[in-house]
Batch of 4 targets.
Target 1
Amino acid sequence: MRAGFELNFSNTLMRIFDPLSPQPRLPENFVWGVATSSFQIEGAATADGKGPSIWDTFCRVPGAIADGSDGQIACDHYKLWEEDLDLIAGLGVDAYRFSLSWPRIRPTGRGAWNEKGLDFYERLVDGLLERGIKPYLTLNHWDLPDALQASGGWANRDTVHRFVEYANAVDKRMGSRIAAITTHNEPWVMAVLGYETGIFAPGIKSRAAAAQASHHLLLSHGLALQSLREQGCKAKLGIVLNLSPVQPASETAADKAQAVLEDGKLLRWYMDPLFKASYPDDVLRYLGADAPVVCAGDLQTIATPMDFLGVNYYSRSVVSADGPWDVHKSGLEVTDMGWEVYPEGLTELLVRMHRDYPVPPMYVTENGGAFKDQYVNGRVHDADRVRYIAQHIQAVADAIEQGVNMEGYMVWSLLDNFEWASGYAKRFGIVHVDYETQRRTLKDSALWYRSFLQHQHAESLKQESLALGA
Ligand code: FCB
């Protein structure tokens, strides 16, 4: 990893990499973006006919959210969306990754459609296009209609079909204007944190329910892809997984075996069905009687070819057979979430996926860090976040150099927002949000990203005119 680092905002072409070595040059059509999700920023929890989501309900469980907060107002993006789109455009990104609130569009998940919800997202999409930004839309970033949870949520096979109906309705209304549609964001998180450990909505604690939920999420992804294509959907279609390289805490046989199993549960449990139409044997053995019910044809459906694969990367995972690994042991920098800063893990992960699976072009659909920001005199000097993002962009460039087909990179997140069970205490934004006034302020990381992108685009133009002149 190149270490050199220098921040100087009077100089528009800031160097963040070793000044002696060139900045990484990503491919010509590489897509640069920023990302958010509906529940984390929109607020307007009951406005214009929106139904409750499982997160609205979960936030009311005493102790579920660290600071006792909820998504009622969040960043008030439902009202401030135009201002936010101007902010995005000002950064000079190519794409905006956002999600739709399913209960805003179909309040009970299976009954009437809410035209006002569809109208909101249509305005958002048109607003992006007017500003020259490609919409990257996620259908399910965790905020399932609460009414569907009453009949089991993702543990119930019926939800699969409700999801396909929802996907079709969104495509009918705006699909022709969308660059890419992601079915689900991070099925592992929804299944394991939502149904097994219960630390996320809907707060269930059952390994069997979690395994069944993961299968239904994957199945609904495959069925939605087939249905959207039959409908003539023009957008690129894919899914987003949260992945990490899993490393043993030591060289003991027990730690190594534990790491293999954890890799199975996190990565192979999703990648194998998506790309090999099978579940990994070791994880099936581990699940025993809790393994999901899989009907004939399900695995072939799940393996429906995708146009892209999104990877959300934050850190590596270190596992030990003796229980939780102490993250401070390694001496690496640790973010405010308690996650190690480990950019080389991103290169390792992408190269491994390229080697082990017939993957389509990949995106880093989320990457970023929560740090203890200080807002002083209208500025946030978040050098730690700048360094984090720059090092991970370098890690993507390193993977490309090793032959991996990468199409884009998106920072998590555009705005400080509702960080799920951590509430508002953890700030991931490159734009600071004052929750009292809803004022947005570009942090140094946003200023840096903007300059970095200007440099990338200037280089692309230079290459193009060189090619034309040649
Ligand atoms: C990911 C989620 C995203 C955000 C980041 C920090 O798991 O997709 O919504 O919370 O983590």
Target 2
Amino acid sequence: MIENDRFLRACRREPVDYTPVWMMRQAGRYMAEYRALREKHTLIELCKTPELALQVTLQPLRLGMDAAILFADILLPLEPMGAPFEFAKGEGPVIHKPVRSKADVDALRVIEPHEGLGYVLEAIKLIKKEIKIPLIGFAGAPFTLASYLVEGGKSKAFETTKKMMYGEPEVWSTLMGKLAEVVRRYLHAQIDAGADAVQLFDSWVGNLDVDDYREFVQPHVSGILKDIEKRGVPVIHFGTSTHHLLEVQREAGGTVLGLDWRTPIEEGWKRVGHDRAIQGNLDPTVLFAPREVAVKHAKRVLDAAGNRPGHIFNLGHGILPGTPVETVQAVVEAVHEHSRR
Ligand code: CP3
């Protein structure tokens, strides 16, 4: 049973007595409890064992978050689709056989979430029994997932991805279509299992210009968002370095639009439209500053949002390893106090 629904109310732009806060990647290496579990288990084991995923999801909640986010990773669907990967030490994700040709794309399976991702749905059911705040489910967006599949791992310039996008637009469209359908089914399944809201992570889409976004990405993202929004569950549409894309992302959909810290809130919200909620946007590196400086920056974010209904406080991107836990806690408390109506 949800006792604190401020996060959901803010998604719907309903009044709240204080601004709700959660932080992307709020479970992770900056917490000693997480590092202790990681000494015994790999990241994939944590994700694939519902009892452990539950435990990790709960860890950051002692810091006063107003929402929980399911502990999983955006890459998990790639394995059952036929593209196994690992998290190599110091390198990030590595896809064993990158997807580069028409034959590679044709071989990808459009799975049903209960085949191969049942452990995520089990974790959601366990988490829902334990928490009294809303649970956020999530998936990677097609472009961001495609970039890992095609590059074979992380990338700076996405040249191999763009080579396919520009050079073989039909192969690209098949790849994006398959990813979009898996993500659509997966988000529906997470909502069926109990997720109260979902976030679509299009972390790297800011590397495209407006015209390419419209042509190569928007139809796929829009298909997912518009379909999921019919469920009546809030959908958060997130990207980074998307200052130039806010209008086309808005068109694509989302109950809530994520703003990263490069976009001033007043301007970003105006361009997204005050008929949508926004989430963001403290620079994650500000949490490494002296505590009072971090708190000052958090208050600045709140002042910019001006207590207008429909602001969810978050970072502009995920929390970084090495972030001092006490600063996170101080910022959460400051958000609650400073925004009290
Ligand atoms: O927010 C949360 O607390 C929920 C859990 C979560 C994880 N990954 C766990 C994780 C979420 C929401 C993600 C999303 C994710 N995963 C994204 C989108 C968000 C973003 O940051 O833009 C992306 C791009 C990924 C892919 C991925 N997974 C990368 C690039 C890495 C980093 C690899 C590294 O070595 O740093 C991961 C690993 C990962 N996923 C960790 C966690 C807590 C790192 C921790 C570990 O090794 O234990």
Target 3
Amino acid sequence: MDSKFNDERYLTFALGKGRLANKTLDILEQIGITCEEMRDKSSRKLIFVNEELKMKFFLAKGPDVPTYVELGSADVGVVGYDTVLEENRNVYEVLDLGFGKCRMCVCGPASAKELLLHHERIRVASKYPNIAKDYFYNKKHQTVDIIKLNGSVELGPLVQLSDVIVDIVETGSTLKENGLEVLEEVCPLSARMIVNPVSMQMEKARIRDLVLRIREYLEKEK
Ligand code: PRP
């Protein structure tokens, strides 16, 4: 048997940096999986190990998490559903963790509503070009020009770069402060646990146990 899959094998987690990782560590801690070192903000270390549980953890940029998981560098990943959809990697989505709730929306000035109704060829700015393309082409059957941005996407309509944007809306305050609004909802979002398909087979028992324990904890917390 491949030595990667014996009893001594580490179960490796890739966590999306930031709030998502912190919340995930909180949940893992609640079910008895701890990783003290990882909480130390001053540390520049990249990989953290829990020798007792034979688990490893690393923090990665959100959009890289599905890459690490698909290619087997991590068995398990935690990342926003926005990233799961945008990256469209070959991974299993095993659990909706229920936190990080927000919405993917088409937003713009109220005047852009017309453009959506009449299926006009419009410009759409987004950090999520694949989600935007899928929504307009496959769901709305509307031909659009997609412009990829890397952040502060709300600027798009404000500086006449685009007619609308496809972006995450959480509290709605960024939109409000910039005179924009939600025009259509693409889908609801939250944090998801994803698993490498080979790990799913080879580490079935450990992964199933992990998912069950987290699910039980989340149910209790409801
Ligand atoms: C996200 C998103 C919106 C904002 C939505 O941006 O892209 O801009 O948060 O939150 P709100 O509805 O609560 O105002 P983020 O802060 O991640 O930075 P970015 O604009 O650089 O992507």
Target 4
Amino acid sequence: MIVRTLKEVLGTQHDVTAPEKQWQSRRLLLKKDHLGFSLHDTIIYPNTETHIWYKNHLEVVYCIEGEGEVEVLSPEQKTYQISPGTVYVLNQHEKHVLRAKTQMRIICVFDPACTGTEVHGEEGAYPADDSRD
Ligand code: 9YT
């Protein structure tokens, strides 16, 4: 069994802040845990906008605190309001923009699992991880 706490992750290399400071992702379960997914407890700072395109991952985002919206740019064109209890799933590698009106806390699952130190590249993606461990 794996038992881990947010407190153990805070301040480590798996507590990652975006270079442009829109979010802070505390990565609880990672590729090294061999689960096939990673689990992140992420803070999205208020009044921020993040352009994202997870070409190499599927992502589930479950909002537990705060208010925001996700604008899907492609393949559909639609904006969804996000509040506690809302889950959205990027199951088609959608290009999108996440806007936080207030500070949000979201629980994110990535498939395949992140290694733990990823930040978005120029296109808003995390790199594909082809390494074995
Ligand atoms: C919603 C989203 O993808 N925000 C960026 C951070 C990411 N969720 C992460 O690495 O925790």
